[in-house]
Amino acid sequence: MSGQAFGVIGLEVMGRNVAQNVERNGFPVAVYNRTWEKTQDFMDGPAKGKNFKAAKTEQEFAALLERPRKILVLVKAGKPVDLVIDALKPFLQEGDIVIDGGNSLYTDTERRVAALAPTGIKFFGMGVSGGEEGALNGPSLMPGGDKDAYKHLEPILTKIAAKAYDGAPCVTYCGSGGAGHFVKMVHNGIEYGDMQLIAEAYDLLKNVGGLSNSDLKSTFDQWNQKGSELRSFLIDITTKVINFPDPSGSGKSMVDVIQDKVGMKGTGTWTIQAALNLQIAVPTMAAAVDAREMSGLQAERVAAEKQLPGPKAAKFSGDVKAFVNDVKAALYCSKICSYAQGMAMLNAANQPKKPDGTGGYDYGMHLGDLASIWRAGCIIRADFLDDITKAFNADPKLPNLLLAGKFKDAVVSKQDAWRRVVGIGVAQGIATPAFSASLAYYDAYRRARLPGNLIQAQRDFFGGHTYMRTDKTPAGPYHMEWTEGGKETLVVEGKSRTK
């Protein structure tokens, strides 16, 4: 069967832009939207005179495509995806490929893969990052699904993806099942952390260091220069918004008239929930989600400010230039910790599922490849992702990014500045939840012994949860009778033996 090489369902902005990207790169495209008016508008507009064909029904759409059909669905996550699959399924055949390019929860993708498996239809979950502009000109793509089926998608996805500075396409096969949407979810969790860290740096520089918006723009411009460890898309857009004038004539910058109430679409929360399931600590991301939730308590905070005083700290009188450099160092160190947490999550998802239901998903991801595809096109693109790529390529089993030579050296050399910044924030009553959480993560990870021994003793006292010893063989588990003259018991296969 001959026909269009690629199909797109859903012609809102993302769908329209991806469709144009595919066609511009030499692949004829079939399009379908639930409402014909939107399809007609697309065909009469950006698709006019180009290699597009439009369908009015799912059956007509399927008939336009060459086999195996390659169909990208870009509709709202959740039930709409299931409705599209149900409507399309009667007209598809074994080997056809359906790709969900929305922000779906990875467990929904796992469910859809399993539901379609008996039909022979291959279902992919693909993270797409870069927003509307990226969709049109080159996004970062994170596809996951059947490995053999990926060979049919690879030529197209490689063409339409963003290209890093070395020409490498920002797309890779992420792994089986819901791996693609899992990777995108972690990407978004890192994005939450990055944005919160930058916001905290802004808060400190403005409200402790006394920098004007013009000064802040100059500072962020310097941090975004080529060769700077902080050079990234998010720092770049910060330079563009930080001193943007309010067109209403207020005489203020736009950031000063925007309410401090931050929206959420749920992917950050999903990341925290997934981390809990994998038993991976992600305190920087969690702090970022908490900060957004706290921002939603706007009316309560306005009232609380009148009743709850802060510290009686003196106005900052230190060296402002030195403080700016300290904040830069703290931001970089905290950013390393945020990415370390994200990569640890991805590593945990790679592990096989254990008989007790814990463990990972056996996705088979290569962490160096994942860092590589985030170097361009996506929201968290940053120069230092090149260093992360090199770190995991050099040691695919690297247990934590903090142990990679360059990042270890950076955090060790900059930690004094990091501690000063967090301390100044506390003294001045400026909340720095993500900076503080990142520092606590570092301090917990670097210590061979934490106070969990006391917690385990408490757990054994009130619930008989047992403990392990540091000085005996076997190490345990043991249970102690926590009364005067009590005995310690070695617990063996659910039974106790007094020692």
Describe the structure.
With 499 residues, the chain is of the alpha/beta class. Helices cover 50% and strands 9% of the residues. The protein has 19 helices and 10 strands. The strands form 2 sheets. Strands 3-2-1-4-5-6-7 form a 7-stranded mixed sheet, with helices on both faces. Strands 8-9-10 form a 3-stranded antiparallel sheet, with no helix packed on it. α4 links the parallel β4 (70-73) and β5.
Indicate the topology.
Layout: E1 6-9, H1 13-24, E2 29-32, H2 36-44, E3 52-54, H3 58-63, E4 70-73, H4 79-88, E5 97-100, H5 106-116, E6 122-129, H6 131-137, E7 140-144, H7 147-160, H8 179-207, H9 213-223, H10 233-241, H11 267-278, H12 283-295, H13 298-305, H14 320-350, H15 367-373, H16 385-394, H17 405-428, H18 433-446, H19 452-463, E8 478-480, E9 488-492, E10 495-498
Parallel strand pairs: 1-2, 1-4, 2-3, 4-5, 5-6
Antiparallel strand pairs: 6-7, 8-9, 9-10
